[in-house]
Fold this sequence. Notes:
- 0% of the residues lie in helices and 46% in strands.
- The protein is built from no helices and 9 strands.
- The chain has strands at residues 21-26, 30-33, 39-48, 55-60, 71-75, 87-94, 98-108, 115-120, 127-132.
- Strands 1, 2, 3, 4, 5, 6, 7, 8 and 9 form a 9-stranded mixed beta sheet that branches.
Amino acid sequence: AEGGGGSNFLYRVTAEPVAPRVVIKSTIDHIEGKPATPTEVVLTVERLDGFSEPLQAELVTDPSNPLPPELTLTSSLSEKEGDSSKQIKLTIQSSLALSRPLKVLVKSTANPQMTYPVTFGDENSSNLWLTVAPPK
């Protein structure tokens, strides 16, 4: 088709400033572990438009459904450059048998007030489901 424009056509152009941003996700949304055995989850960190904050993950506690003290999460540091800038490794461990959702939040270590959501699985869930089976 020729003539796709001209003085009889209207155009809308939107210009927005480019701001640094980050997308943090995992391909899995459910993990199964054994009591007192660490389970590792890798989060992919996609840094866009010059985002350069160092990042670390933590569990979010819901006061109406608190996490048991026997459940721990440790997080690697995702530096602003190099191989570690592309991922965060989580190690989750529970000495109790349990099955529950976990909410993980990523914070900037340079500015802890800056937080970033994490999505899990193909459906981009905001929770990671953890199942720790009782010992046999």
